[in-house]
């Protein structure tokens, strides 16, 4: 588990304030007629996303004006600051615009580039998940713990959508997930909360952005799990967007080994010859 490089608890109230500010705008627009725009990366965005992030930035400007900000909708500011907030007002916009309640607001605090605080707010479900480096993860103030699953053959695995994978990465995920006891699709950020709460054992994804995954680090680790990129490296702003989160270090190691083996076989062309 990541240790605290500096006291973080005083910033937890600010993280809650950011989630509260976003919630006002996101809930106001949820399940109402919305114009949906397409961004340059082909992902959808609505006025709810943009208003919610603007409200979060206003809170940061008032309470932590010297901190940096990396947000999905309104760009980045002062990324060289000691503290940087990484915010996603509506993670799961596709769920949001189709009326699914499994979308959330994500907040991460980085200290010198390292995640030290993460918050996930699920406004429709009334759940708020928090993690701070070196401390037990919580949901609505109550401690949570991952399942303890150590074997792939017993694992329940999630990913948001097959559409998020390139062809080679999908082959790797498909091979891994078929070794598991159960695989499911959907959930967006909520799959990681389900992992922290002990209901899901493995989440494997690709094509993520820093504001999609940095808030999850302290939550997953604070519940006893392990989360890295597909090579086992710590997640940072510069990570490639491929994420493996597991309920235990043992399960995480098995998942990484299978992904690596499949990727090597693909590179050598063994699968095409089979």
From TrEMBL:
Entry's EC annotation: 3.1.3.15
Enzyme class: hydrolase
Pathway field: Amino-acid biosynthesis; L-histidine biosynthesis; L-histidine from 5-phospho-alpha-D-ribose 1-diphosphate: step 8/9
Catalytic reactions of this protein: L-histidinol phosphate + H2O = L-histidinol + phosphate
Cofactor (UniProt): Mg(2+)
One of the protein's GO biological processes: L-histidine biosynthetic process
Family membership: Belongs to the inositol monophosphatase superfamily.
Positions bound to Mg(2+) 2: 90
Binding residues for Mg(2+) 1: 72, 88, 91, 212
Membrane spanning stretches: none
Protein name: Histidinol-phosphatase
InterPro entries: His_9_proposed, Inositol_monoP_metal-BS, Inositol_monoP_superfamily, Inositol_monophosphatase-like
Gene Ontology MF term list: histidinol-phosphatase activity; metal ion binding
